[in-house]
Design goal:
Helix content is 52%, strand content 18%. It is α+β, with helices and mostly antiparallel strands and 100 residues long. The chain has a three-stranded antiparallel sheet with strand order 1-3-2. The chain is elongated.
Length: 100
């Protein structure tokens, strides 16, 4: 299987869950901490980590890490990637003509 198809599969899998779509929508216009996302969605930390990992691996979400020296904790902030566009028609044409 080509690299392009594998990347596309990751993308579609990441977009196939309603919670992940909500996370992307929440992080579209502003950066949110994992704690803010978790509280807003009322989900457990392990479940949030699982969803976030799929979105980051699919290159849909980006992460910024900040260390709070005063409290000695690491905070992670997420934002939907800038200029995120998915050209489904182009992707399907490539698959059809076996260019990928």
């Amino acid at each position: 299987m080509s690299e392009e198809i594998e990347r596309s599969l990751k993308l579609f899998k990441a977009l196939s869950h309603p919670t992940r779509l909500k996370i992307l929508a929440m992080c579209l216009d502003k950066e949110l901490s994992s704690k803010e996302i978790r509280r807003s969605l009322n989900i457990s930390k392990p479940l949030l980590i699982s969803h976030i990992k799929k979105l980051v691996d699919a290159e849909l979400l980006e992460c910024r890490i900040e260390f709070d020296r005063e409290k000695s904790i690491v905070r992670k902030y997420y934002k939907t990637k800038e200029n995120l566009t998915i050209d489904l028609t182009d992707l399907l044409r490539k698959i059809k003509t076996k260019q990928i």
